């Protein structure tokens, strides 16, 4: 699920390249010097040639969930970790993972066309011919179905796109919705289509998103060819990720499993991904209005919305089997605080060969583990326990990480300090998102990592790029705010269970922006040949990722006082509240405008006589919400974070290590065991994926989505819940400040 990284903000920090030795946050001057010496030794160990050979081995054959090479890879990773001197084992879980039994798509009218539904092997690409081991093109967790219906083009298939269809007088009731990949996560497309009465959904890759519009297509270039298809899960993960049959509990042998007809995260209609080669015969044979300019892809034809006359027959049938997951878990025991855990993860499963997604991230993680093993031989010992995880089953629905974390939830709640995630890695700028209590920490790390291409520090390269495209307001913030912001996390990779369900401070990191992006994402061509010709071809950025993540692990593991900083978090919360108030005011203004136009009969003149569009009726004007509890709690958080920071700086290295027990719980304060409305698995009241975004984050989600969906009574309740969470955080910081001040 490499695309999750694309939602992350980039950031930087202003300083000079030749800084004098500095005291690290949470360290004394003496322990800082020792830590930096060990980090310098660490940075010298990862090797590009080893990264290349890791990728060659791990991506040599298809290794989806349940495949022989998936297990083989897990066993090989575990053996490698043991050879590095780490205590490694494989934890196995049992999960629902459907695979195709029957697939068919035909255009019946006004032309006859049988879809190929296949990506051909290419002579130049040596692993593209492994047909017997490749999963066919499909969307996991689509239901079985056999439907024949007219086709309607729905653009990206977002809720806003359906509002536009309604304005055009077009319905998908009883139709097959044809959506293009992009903007919304793929699982949202059939979800919204079903809510509007569609009987099936097809998702195609338009060349505008990742094909010839962006460059030469494969094999001449890195972009998706006409026959390329993006596989992927359409599980309704905004409800809950992981094994669909065991929500909230680990999929262990004795776990109670829901029957298939009670699972809520399967699609409501059959859905399948197709190439634009297979989509063209439908798009060419749609009538109706020309689509709005923003809906037009890059195929050489006028885009019409339909419905019909194109009519299609879609037939899908799946094997609803349970398959094993193989999570590889390796530990380095802490020498001082063994019950405080720093956790690192990247998945190892793929839809096919998966060189870019996920091996470009898994290979650097292996080099990190090897480098730490080398330091152990030289006498280094982490103060806290370090855990390296290589997850299985990420692609179908974050299966391996979710099942492991749900199984070990009580231990993680007690011991987990932080989780550092990566997924696919490319070439270009450093990217990160995560818990804002770690924002200052990440800014500091990036001072000490070199960008391989420019030889400047990674933070400086990104800052220069950010400054070049900044607005005047953003430029002013660069001068006034020492740390640039990182984005919040929604979902889309293995941090989800840690951030959204367990309240563990988390980061998602990687490099990218100067590579092919998603050109071969989830296709048979995401393999060693493609990656080594068009992505991080010399593995220099793979080495940089290993260095960056490894230093993060070491610095968190060895800090006397955990380097969380809460003033950035408090500042960011105020920006989120301001956004929510603006959203609320916008809803009120739009409602008043529409009601005024309805009264004046404006919509009568705007009706489309062909479609007999029904003008909107008046809506109740939204009530004024009481944001005072949220404002008061945010102010309390600001005061408490300032007090904690003052106590922390005053105490310096004399601060008591016992305060770490409170800092570990800081992210837990943001949880509500009742969860968000209609999705109790998501307990974090500050960060969550949107119900209609899938991956994209909604901050203070209970309040924000209640306003978006005009559920005003619920909004008041959610304001109170979010305020209570922020107040709990403020109270904990007050306790931590007193503990430091009274040592």
In helices, the fraction of residues equals: 25-40%
What structural category arises from helix and sheet content? Answer: alpha/beta
**What is the CATH superfamily classification of the largest domain?**
Zn peptidases
Shape: globular
Number of helices, where a helix is a run of at least 4 consecutive DSSP H or I residues = 23
Q: What can be said about the biggest beta sheet?
A: 7 strands, mixed
Task: Walk me through the structure.
This protein is an alpha/beta fold and 743 residues long. The protein folds into 3 domains: 2-25 and 61-96 and 323-448 and 487-558, Zn peptidases (Aminopeptidase, 3-Layer(aba) Sandwich), CATH 3.40.630; 99-320, Glucose Oxidase, domain 1 (3-Layer(bba) Sandwich); 567-741, Up-down Bundle (Transcription Elongation Factor S-II, Chain A). It is 38% helix and 16% strand. The protein contains 23 helices and 18 strands. The protein has a 7-stranded mixed sheet, with helices on both faces. Strands 3-2-10-5-6-7-9 form a 7-stranded mixed sheet, sandwiched between helices. A two-stranded parallel sheet has the order 4-8. Helix 1 (29-43) packs across helix 8, helix 8 (355-377) packs across helix 17 and helix 22 packs antiparallel against helix 23. It starts with 28 loop residues before the first helix and ends with a helix. The relative contact order is 0.15.
Structure keywords:
3 domains, seven-stranded mixed β-sheet, 18 strands, single chain, 743 residues, Glucose Oxidase, domain 1, 23 helices, 38% helix, Aminopeptidase, globular
Outline of this structure?
This protein has 23 helices and 18 strands. By secondary structure, the chain is of the alpha/beta class.
